[in-house]
């Protein structure tokens, strides 16, 4: 039967400890065993059943042909104590041909990746990823003006086989190629498009500037409790804005915008000095009055009139009351795919 | 071979030199020096300076004069004073086989140099080296000219120094180019001697370390000046085209090559950074061995001057960017910022159009608006789609299909 999830010998933990798989979280077996979480994956992965069994380290039960042999194997294992993972796999599948095994292995990786995409958007998964984030497992932003902000792994597509994993910097809201080439083999779909942004919405209280020097933290402390567009004002692209846009200079003189080689991309790193400019809903309300129905709806959805919030992690608690977030995640991912 | 060259110079009065002698010579020959009129004076002055240094042995004088003559190999149309060559040299060089020109640069130290080190810092005075060479006087200058640019060759090819280009001997020996550097570098003269491969001071290891360190520092400071000259720019451009400085990590820049730059022109302030001309932003070097290089060795102006000099190399700009999404919906906070930034861009483009300056964006004007409309359609579609499939979403819709967290 399955080994315990904490065992270092499980397929999942050995997969996550492979070189280049440092970004992966270990999906809990409870999550995989819930069929609901796997909705729709059967059609995407070849030899789905075998792959799933491999991930869960379960002996194939329905294979009637080699049932007896499997039982023997189990006895063997219990007799030997704990063998290496590879050895056990080999013995378990010894009736299958080698190529078959490699197909299963690769589809197990694919299946794990797709489950992982859903898992890291679930409550338990995103929590696990936040622990990895705090330990800087995903590296830091290469942009100089981001001051080594920690990044998050994201995909640019939810369909496997399209692009490799990228790093999303919450400080400049841009994506970067991981510095190490070993991540060039990791599929971006195993992390998905949603994770990066969802992480920021799930943990709004993360101080994104924490790793980036004390200066900035002091600067932004003044508007700490200002909440704009559903995010803390200090957490809206802290790496952008005045003083963090590169200004090309020649011998101390700024290069003119009118020059052929003058700056053209500064908009990409700009941010309004007064962040409340971005509070479009409020500006709209101020212009058109409050009589509008739509406007009231917006009010309910957290019209951010620069108000104070209760201290504590109120948002996370509220999310907990909203039923299982997993349900949404699975559905959402399906609609994407 | 070098002696062969020197002889050649002597014969032609240094007026025209064979182009195919060094690997870099054809390219160098095309580019005129930035101050050709001042050069010859500076050259002769520097030779005089060298002659005044008391610690130099006679051999060193000869070799320095010789090496500066040799360095002229890549410049055409430069009038030079014919240098007095040792009469002994002529017969010996005539009898020596001339190696293939291309092989010279990559040759290891001559085998007859008794103490092989992994860099050309010879630990013994020149006179000692000379006596070891089987008493062949006529080989002394020869071995020294083999040393030409050895220190620089070694320095540039050593690990972590991939960003540097090789400074021409000419540039180094022109004192005008080094104005003011003597106050910045400890043991300035020795360091310069080491860089130009005429170093012959007998001193202890500690002192050598210090001088070696000074030499690296001095090389960096000269490098910052050199790379903004016409020839320096051309050299760095070659390296840029070969992606020697790495590629932009930003996904939307699609591996555009980078350029090294500093955030300060003063040494020991900021490490080197990498500039991407496509997104016009600066990044930290990937590897730690590069992030230890002083940014002042490249300067704050170099990369901008490069694009001023070669405006055709300015890459086309795109409005392509990453937009954070949750299940296909833009995140409101980020999307509002994107809208604001797009407005800024629109204003900039309008300003430029008013001044009739090319904005450099790949797309034609007016396409911007269409694009926005398309985007909005797409958004609406997506929203409907998600509404149908995903009624239990934790998110709420606001504006044009964005999400904000519940309050």
TrEMBL record, chain A:
Keywords attached to this entry: Kinase, Transferase
Basic and acidic residues: which segments have biased composition? Answer: 79-88
Name used for this protein in its record: Casein kinase II subunit beta
One matching Pfam family: CK_II_beta
Which GO molecular function terms does the record list? Answer: kinase activity
Could you tell me which residues belong to the region Disordered?
59-93, 285-337
Q: Which residues form a coiled coil?
A: none
For bias kind Basic residues, which ranges apply? 305-318
Under the subunit heading, UniProt states:
Tetramer of two alpha and two beta subunits.
Question: What does the UniProt record say this protein does?
Answer: Regulatory subunit of casein kinase II/CK2. As part of the kinase complex regulates the basal catalytic activity of the alpha subunit a constitutively active serine/threonine-protein kinase that phosphorylates a large number of substrates containing acidic residues C-terminal to the phosphorylated serine or threonine.
Task: Give the source species.
Answer: Podospora comata
UniProtKB/TrEMBL annotation, chain B:
PROSITE patterns of this UniProt entry? CK2_BETA
Top-rank taxon of the source lineage equals Eukaryota
Q: Where is the composition biased (Low complexity)?
A: 82-97
Known Pfam families for this protein?
CK_II_beta
Where does the record place Acidic residues bias? 366-384
Q: Can you state the subunit structure given in the record?
A: Tetramer of two alpha and two beta subunits.
- Entry similarity comment: Belongs to the casein kinase 2 subunit beta family.
Its biological purpose = Regulatory subunit of casein kinase II/CK2. As part of the kinase complex regulates the basal catalytic activity of the alpha subunit a constitutively active serine/threonine-protein kinase that phosphorylates a large number of substrates containing acidic residues C-terminal to the phosphorylated serine or threonine.
Q: What is this protein called?
A: Casein kinase II subunit beta
Q: What is the species listed in this Swiss-Prot or TrEMBL entry?
A: Podospora pseudopauciseta
Gene that produces this protein: CKB2
